[in-house]
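One-letter codes give the sequence; backbone shape is given numerically. An example follows:

. . .
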Amino acid sequence: MLKRYYQFVILLSVCTLYVFSKPHKTDDGPNFNLKEAFLSNPNMEKEFNKQPQKENLPPLIPPDQITDETRSLPKILEETPQYILDNCPLVHLYSEERYWPSDHKDFVKHFHLQDTSGAIINTSNPLTINDLKLTYEKTLKNGSTVYINSEKLFMTSNEKFNDYTNWLIGYQPEYGTGLIKNGPATLFIVDKGNGWVDAYWFYFYPFNWGPFIMGEGPWGNHVGDWEHSLVRFYMGEPQFLWMSAHGGGGAYHFNAIEKVKKLRRVKGKVQNEIVWRPLIFSARGTHANYASVGQHSHDVPFFFMPLSDFTDRGPMWDPVLNHYAYQYDGQDIHPMTEREKELGTGWLKFAGSWGDKKLKWNDSRQKWCPVQWKYIDGPQGPLHKNLERVSLCQTFKWWNFWHGCPARRWLKRGEGLDAEKNDSFGDNCGLLLYKIRPKWLRSIVRILMWRGVTCFVMDYFTG
């Protein structure tokens, strides 16, 4: 038995040395003038399509630095490229979800605007989507007028809401089709140059029901919830998929993501063709997105049972069936169809919170625990989620001081009783620990591995 233990320790040491000595390629890739070859020979596109996710791809360019020579898309798109629709993620909502997707256009009707001091901003009553914009006029007590940035404003509910208020519940997808008639997604197409294109799919939920800690909660609830996923394309082929989770998120090579067969839709009409669509899983209440089923720790750098999200194969939502679509270049917003033109673009520039300010401590609905309040500030809207980014990650966790964002090469399996595992992958690096017998020896190894920190480091760098 000791021999097996020493073999394990030696194997672990070798793997760790290999991980830290081997340069890891991230999504930004080295500088390689592949775009020039592509432009000079259009037939090369077929070759790229045959070999997706090649190494040594050219770098991405921030939208404000793209020139006519490096542009991947027409400056003004007439319609959404078919490859973006063919690779739109399907979302498995949680089977016991209480707060489903909704239409943000209808959501705003339940609010008025207030600044941080509680002063009301004059708009329509009730508020409409056309009332949302970047700046507002405010009349001071001396009669003078000033302009204030919407970043300092909150959508404040017209009624005293609670966890069971009807307009916070949202709508479930239709069984079989995945359509949510009253819950459109929002698509942003962003050119990243040199053949790269980002497709951001935003999902709006009227309420975020926070997690429980040690059986107590929920904590971190907020009105309004914008989540999103990113599919990154090179020459029309999907290369990476990133999904949001609590201000951070997870990045994957596209071929690592689970996929399901669906009929292709062209201009809204079903075709007699099969496409393989990626699957993502929306967590109960928080709507954080993950790539697998089960229990997922969050806001900590390795598995931590008391603070977790839960996903399963609940109702499937297909955002392609009902969505708004925009082209965005970091500054200008181009509506793709008449539907988006009618909605306008002012609401996208609104920089305030899509939901109430954190409830006061003396509000009967508010509660406190040592690390969180029950009700916190609402989130900002889609254009304030760093869509200009070159990295896959929108932001970085507090512990990620090196700002690394490697894309995983294998699925990160969920934990817990509901997780879907197999003998090949188990729950990732932790599979090594399960093979150690007897249990007392496994416990010693876990202590030596800092109760999972070593596993996390290996898993982070190897994917």
In short: Confidence is low (pLDDT under 50) at residues 1-54, 423-427. Residues 2-21 form the longest helix (20 residues).
